[in-house]
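A reminder from the course coordinator: this example appears on the midterm review sheet, so study it carefully.

Given structure:
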């Protein structure tokens, strides 16, 4: 099955690893929402308490933008109660609200000429009959589910995530994907993504990781990309950590876009995850009105390293059907880089990247610091101080 097939599957044929449905009451008054302790109950129960529409969340937040119900035809809304607690009650420009609540700007995105359902050309690079995207040599992206704890409005994979059950990735897809990975000995790096692989139960994740390790011993680097720690930190449990450690998952990349998402609860669960010995990275998306600000990025990256998470990539936002209005111009991206590099610790600075249209791959965005001009090599630092280093020229006598 390829991604196009994922997009057209009938709900009844789906057997996605959607979170187990548990019947739980949602919080429709602010007092009960704020009194709720996310550590007091199982993470799956919290999924059942998610807000599904702007009408629902308007019961606990003020100034929620009214959008037509047709908005949800393009992309569902899901917000965990934990995230709702973090949202500013009154400010519609709260960086967490902007990431998760639908906006009228989305209908403008849908009409823009350059927006695409599959900007990165993943469907084209999906191995037929599987949910494996094989674009680069020696490494693959393994989409294991179409489900997430909450849906980010700018999601690059919005064409397959959301709409529970309609675009399921089932056992047959996982089996075919496993057969492909097992049969291609040159694959040495597998990134589990989706959707969010941590919506799997511990048992299901244990089984899948175990299959990769036993059926594809040539895989040297096993990674998981997940936003669940940020949307529902209590998903990180000792049992989950045991599974990650058991299968030697070498890297878990989380996804934080603003320091407001870094709470004491997240910090404590990240500490738990670090004890597994896995590397922790953070991938952020550059989003207009949310984090396109030098101080916001400096704080975000330093807050990440302070909890032992290495900023890995800062992505330019993709031109998805509903999220193009978040895009920051390239010139501003370069200014932001200049405002970060040199001004905060080196290991806190991620690679700024643009993902090439149609599947060209990731390209770093870096201002020029070293130039060859009129036969001289001219270097400048982050404070615009300059020095000539002509001994670096071709043929220079050293
Ligand atoms: S968690 Fe990831 S896959 Fe899910 S909606 Fe957000 S960006 Fe998309």
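Designed residues:
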């Amino acid at each position: 099955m390829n991604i196009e097939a994922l997009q057209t599957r009938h709900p009844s044929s789906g057997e996605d690893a959607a979170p187990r449905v548990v019947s739980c009451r949602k919080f429709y008054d602010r007092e009960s929402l704020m009194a709720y302790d996310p550590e007091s109950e199982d993470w799956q129960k919290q999924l059942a308490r998610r807000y599904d529409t702007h009408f629902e969340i308007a019961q606990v937040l003020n100034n929620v933008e009214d959008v037509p119900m047709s908005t949800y035809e393009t992309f569902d809304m899901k917000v965990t109660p934990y995230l709702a607690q973090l949202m500013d009650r009154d400010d519609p420009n709260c960086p967490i609200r902007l990431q998760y609540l639908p906006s009228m700007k989305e209908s403008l995105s849908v009409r823009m000429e350059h927006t695409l359902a599959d900007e990165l050309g993943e469907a084209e690079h999906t191995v037929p009959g599987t949910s494996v995207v094989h674009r680069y040599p020696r490494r693959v992206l393994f989409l294991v589910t179409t489900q997430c704890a909450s849906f980010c409005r700018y999601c690059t994979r919005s064409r397959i995530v959301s709409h529970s059950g309609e675009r399921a990735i089932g056992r047959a897809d996982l089996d075919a994907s496993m057969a492909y990975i097992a049969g291609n000995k040159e694959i040495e790096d597998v990134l589990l993504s989706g959707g969010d692989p941590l919506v799997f139960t511990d048992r299901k994740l244990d089984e899948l990781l175990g299959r990769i390790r036993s059926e594809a011993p040539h895989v040297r680097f096993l990674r998981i990309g997940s936003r669940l720690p940020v949307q529902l930190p209590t998903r990180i449990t000792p049992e989950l950590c045991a599974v990650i450690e058991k299968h030697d998952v070498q890297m878990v990349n989380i996804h934080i876009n603003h320091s407001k998402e870094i709470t004491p609860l997240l910090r404590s669960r990240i500490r738990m995850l670090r004890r597994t010995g896995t590397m922790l990275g953070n991938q952020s998306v550059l989003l207009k009105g949310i984090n396109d600000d030098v101080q916001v990025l400096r704080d975000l990256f330093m807050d990440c390293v302070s909890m032992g998470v290495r900023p890995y990539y800062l992505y330019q936002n993709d031109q998805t059907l509903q999220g193009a209005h978040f895009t920051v111009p390239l010139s501003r991206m370069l200014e932001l880089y200049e405002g970060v590099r040199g001004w905060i610790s080196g290991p806190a600075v991620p690679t700024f990247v643009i993902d090439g249209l149609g599947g060209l791959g990731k390209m770093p965005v870096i201002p020029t610091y070293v130039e060859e001009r009129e036969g001289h090599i001219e270097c400048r630092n982050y404070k615009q101080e300059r020095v000539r280093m002509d001994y670096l020229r071709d043929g220079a006598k050293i």
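The longest strand covers residues 279-286. The radius of gyration is 22 Å.
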